[in-house]
Amino acid sequence: MTSQVIDKIKAISIHAPHAYAICLGKKPYEYRNSSTKRRGWVLIHSSGSKASDSCFDDYGIDKKIAFRQAIIGAAFLSDCTSDYQGGYAYKMDRIRLFKQPIEGVKGSQSVFWGHCDDLDKIKAFEAAIEQMGIDLKVRG
């Protein structure tokens, strides 16, 4: 795997119930306060926060399956549109829930974050990309 691929892919940290809902196809949008021009594959990171745990029941997801501070899957961010509350809806397509979550990955408050030359995060990103099961070609 080339470093170009590792350098271009980003992750997004999402509270666990919403991260799993996205990766299980129950939530097609991630809502944020800022727009993004980013398009393409993003890694889905289940944050350590328990603030939204009541939402597991709303999605019909057993919270016992949830890994926290882990990269649990990937999605293709295909669009960003304004939502009805003045925020933005990130459209998540072609979702993947990993068979083996990559645990022990601390996220970031940045909307999209990379490995930041952290060796542990580089290894985590490599493991995640391998599980995606797709060819990530780097263009220009």
Describe the structure.
With 140 residues, the protein is an alpha+beta fold. Helix content is 24%, strand content 32%. It is built from four helices and five strands; from the N terminus they run H-E-H-E-E-H-E-E-H. The chain has a five-stranded mixed β-sheet. It is globular and about 40 Å long. The two termini are 17 Å apart.
The helix/strand class is alpha+beta
Approximate helicity band: 10-25%
Strand order of the largest sheet: 1-3-4-5-2
Q: How do the helices and strands follow one another from N- to C-terminus?
A: HEHEEHEEH
Low-confidence segments: none
Mean pLDDT: 91
Overall geometric form: globular
Radius of gyration from CA coordinates: 14 Å
SS elements, strand count: 5
Please sum up the structure shown.
This protein has 140 residues and is α+β, with helices and mostly antiparallel strands. It is built from four helices and five strands. Helices cover 24% and strands 32% of the residues.
Output the keywords.
5 strands, 140 residues, 5-stranded mixed sheet, globular
Set down the secondary structure blueprint.
Layout: H1 3-8, E1 10-14, H2 16-23, E2 29-32, E3 40-46, H3 55-59, E4 70-82, E5 88-103, H4 119-132
Parallel strand pairs: 1-3
Antiparallel strand pairs: 2-5, 3-4, 4-5
